[in-house]
Amino acid sequence: MTGQKVYIETVGCQMNVLDSELVVGALRKHGYALTDSPVDADVLLFNTCSVREHAEEKTFSALGRVRLRKHANPDAVIGVLGCMAQKDQELIRKRAPYVDMIVGTGQLAAVPELVAKVRATREPQLAVSLGRSDAGRNEVEASFVSYDPTRDPTMRPTPFQAFVRIQIGCDKFCTYCVVPSTRGPEQSRPPEHIWHEVRQLVDQGCKEVTLIGQTVNSYVHEAGDRRTRLSDLIAGMHDVTGLERIKFVTNYPKDMTDDLLNAVRELPKVVKYLHVPVQSGCDEVLKRMKRNYTAGYYMDMLARCRELVPGVSVSSDFIVGFCGETEESFQKSMELVRAAKFKNSFIFKYSERGGTKAAERYPDDVPEDVKKRRNNDLLAVQNENSRADHRAQVGTTVEVLVEGPSRMSAKATHITQLTGRSMADHIVVFDGPERLIGHTVRVAIKDASPFTLYGDVLTDDVVGADVSREPSASAPVPARPNKFSLPLV
Ligand code: SF4
Questions:
Q1: Which domain holds residue 451?
Q2: First CA to last CA across the chain, in angstroms?
Q3: Does 319 map to a domain?
Q4: Using CA positions, which residue lies closest to atom 3 of ligand 1?
Q5: How far away, in angstroms, is 277 Cα from ligand 1 center?
């Protein structure tokens, strides 16, 4: 089918961003073009997240808005994809009965076929996993067929950065989390597939890959008597010519092994940054969350990270106001965040998710205003740490992969304020010409805020690139028509 347009909105984690990229790539092969306007679209897709109530409500309001589109163009196909589709089929049908397709996380490869079925029959289509225990691993494994490294580069964060999924699902079963039921059991992809995909991405101009998994450092693939760990996987792609940076998120504290930390230290292309969510500083709360470690264990792990990878920056996640969190419990999180000195932390107020063990077992008993106050208190301490972490960078020179113009960039001049990230994941802003976008440059850091470093580019010292003064040497960043918000997990 030609001349048809697809619009997609994505909420949630990097997994969802990548899923949307794969879905659009598959639809393009069927003749669809991507549009950033729902008004122009023939197919409107919403890739959803169930981790927080806010994300679910955002999807329902988006669905409310596109209802009008259905009136204007009754042939338009509206689809809900991802975690909410897996978890809340009945609710979606009740609140948005005009939705034509509900497609779970394991069935996304079937989207083009389901769109065609809706068009042919005008019957609603439902494709979701039967459930973690009924479907088993084979059904989830089948979703690997959707991995196509030649997928649509315009859906990527930038043309030179790509996510690569190395693992799907989760077997940890934290009591507050829907992921083990929406994404299924934990499985690691074969290393050969991942290395092949990375080589193809680099051939397309990609310089940085972010390996993603719910607990990425639990990655292990066994075939015969060969066992491939995350450290082996990274080593196996490290020397791909043209690849400049390797990142991996998100880590589980109990699986932070020394072989991985040694690889982060030894391999120059591996970004010296670890995101390792702790969630709480109180052992009783961690136990109710079923995180399987204590605050003491986490702090020992953190010390090991810093000992084995000198200069590594570490960030974390916290949930405040989890069931039964007393003021005393919360103060333990405050103590932990003071002591841990994270580069940054993502702090969330607990919201009960249907279908989780926490919802079954524990009352959501911390009042909303208390959750809000705790969120702000923890954030204030974290911001002090972030400020100190960023101030410590002033006077250093860092390598920055330039991602694009900063949000504050002045448009009318050929000198633009550019932004990118350092090898320790600090956001760096500096003035420079747009032709630097997509290249790695060295920046002398002059100033810092809690969230950003500011500096001057050392133009004589561009790393491995032709950045001649001709404007034609620039690497403009195409408009990013897909919408997404990060991060939620
Ligand atoms: S919070 Fe992370 S580790 Fe825990 S169940 Fe969810 S995805 Fe798995």
A1: 397-473
A2: 37
A3: yes
A4: 172
A5: 10
pLDDT in tens, 61-101: 888 888 877 778 888 999 999 888 888 888 898 999 999 99
**How far, in Å, from the CA of 456 to the mean position of ligand 1?**
40
pTM: 0.84
CA of 183, closest atom in ligand 1: 7
Strands 208-212 and 77-82: unpaired
Q: Which pLDDT belongs to residue 120?
A: 92
Average pLDDT for residues 273-285, to the nearest whole number?
Answer: 98
Cα–Cα dist 343/315, whole Å: 5
CA 286 to ligand 1 centroid distance, Å: 13
Ligand 1 atom nearest to 215, measured from its CA: 3
Residue 114 contacts residue 103 (beta carbons within 8 Å): yes
Instruction: Report the alpha-carbon distance of residue 108 to residue 462 in Å, rounded.
Output: 41
Flag whether 367 is in a domain: yes
Asked if the structure places residue 488 within a domain, the reply is no
Q: Which of 329, 357, 390 is the last residue of a domain?
A: 390
pLDDT (tens digit per residue) in 388-413: 999 999 999 999 999 999 876 655 45
Q: What is the mean pLDDT of residues 148-156?
A: 67
Alpha-carbon torsion, ordered 190, 194, 199, 202, to 10 deg: 180
Number of domains in the chain: 4
Instruction: Check residue 481 and give its pLDDT.
Output: 33
Task: Quote the ligand 1 centre to 450 CA distance (angstroms).
Answer: 28
Residue 343 Cα to ligand 1 middle (Å): 22
Task: Please write the tens of the pLDDT for every residue from 346-371.
Answer: 999 999 988 899 999 999 999 999 99
From 32-46, 218-232, 257-271, 449-463, the region with the lowest mean pLDDT: 449-463
The pick from 178, 215, 216 for probing ligand 1's pocket by mutation, whose C-beta has the most ligand atoms within 8 angstroms, reads: 215
Residue nearest atom 4 of ligand 1, based on CA coordinates? 174
Same domain for 93 and 19?
yes
Would 487 be classed as within a structural domain? Answer: no
Supply the CATH number for residue 295's domain. Answer: 3.30.750.200
Query: Are 185 and 233 members of one domain?
Result: yes
Look at residues 390, 411, 443 and tell me which one is the last residue of a structural domain: 390
pLDDT, residue 411, reads 54
pLDDT value of position 169: 87
Pocket test for ligand 1, best of 173, 186, 276 (most atoms within 8 A of CB): 173
Same domain (yes/no): 16, 120: yes
- Check whether residue 380 and residue 358 sit in a common domain: yes
Q: Within 6 Å (CB) of ligand 1, which residues are found?
A: 170, 172-174, 177, 179-180, 214-215, 252
295 and 206 in a common domain: no
The more confidently predicted of residues 132 and 175 is: 175
Same domain for 174 and 254: yes
In a shared domain, residues 330 and 448: no
What is the distance in A from the centroid of ligand 1 to the CA of 357?
12
